[in-house]
Design brief:
It is built from 4 helices and 6 strands; from the N terminus they run H-H-E-E-H-H-E-E-E-E. By secondary structure, it is an alpha+beta fold. It has one domain: Nuclear Transport Factor 2, Chain: A (Roll).
C-alpha cells in the first residue's frame, strides 16, 4: 500500500511540474512573439516588475525593471536592431516550488549579422505568475 501511495504522489508531483514548465515556456514564447513584433515593453512583461530584478550582461549588473527596460530600448532602438529572436531551451528544471532554473540559447536574425549567445534565467512564481527575477545573458 505504501508503494501505491508513493507512486500516486510521484505522478501528482510530475503532473504539477509539467504544468509549471508549460507556464514558464509560455512566458518565454510570449517574449519571443513580443520581441519579433518590435514591442520591447511587452517583452518585458516576462520580467519581475521590481527594483530587485537582476540583469547581468556584457556591461555588468543592472538592477530594476525600469533600468533594464531603458537599457533594452537604448540597445535596440528599432526593428532592424532588434531582428528576429529565437530561443532554444537547453535546461528547464525546478529548484523548488517557487523557483525554476532555465538555460538556453538566443539568436537574433538581422540583416547584417546574427548575434547569439546563452542565457541563464531564474523564474519565480509571484502572485500566481511566473516571472524572471534574474537574467544572465552573454
Amino acid at each position: 500500500m505504501k508503494v501505491a501511495w508513493f507512486l500516486l504522489f510521484f505522478c501528482l508531483i510530475n503532473r504539477v511540474q509539467a504544468q509549471e514548465e508549460l507556464e514558464i515556456r509560455s512566458v518565454l514564447d510570449a517574449q519571443v512573439e513580443c520581441w519579433n513584433e518590435g514591442d520591447i515593453e511587452c517583452f518585458m512583461d516576462g520580467y519581475w516588475r521590481s527594483d530587485k530584478l537582476v540583469f547581468i550582461g556584457s556591461s555588468g549588473i543592472t538592477y530594476g525593471w525600469e533600468t533594464t527596460l531603458e537599457n533594452y530600448k537604448r540597445r535596440y532602438p528599432d526593428l532592424d536592431a532588434m531582428g528576429k529572436l529565437t530561443f532554444d531551451i537547453n535546461i528547464i528544471e525546478p529548484l523548488s516550488e517557487e523557483f525554476w532554473f532555465v538555460v538556453g540559447k538566443f539568436s537574433l536574425d538581422r540583416k547584417n549579422d546574427n548575434p547569439n549567445g546563452y542565457f541563464t534565467l531564474i523564474f519565480r512564481k509571484i502572485d500566481g505568475k511566473w516571472v524572471i527575477v534574474s537574467d544572465h545573458t552573454g
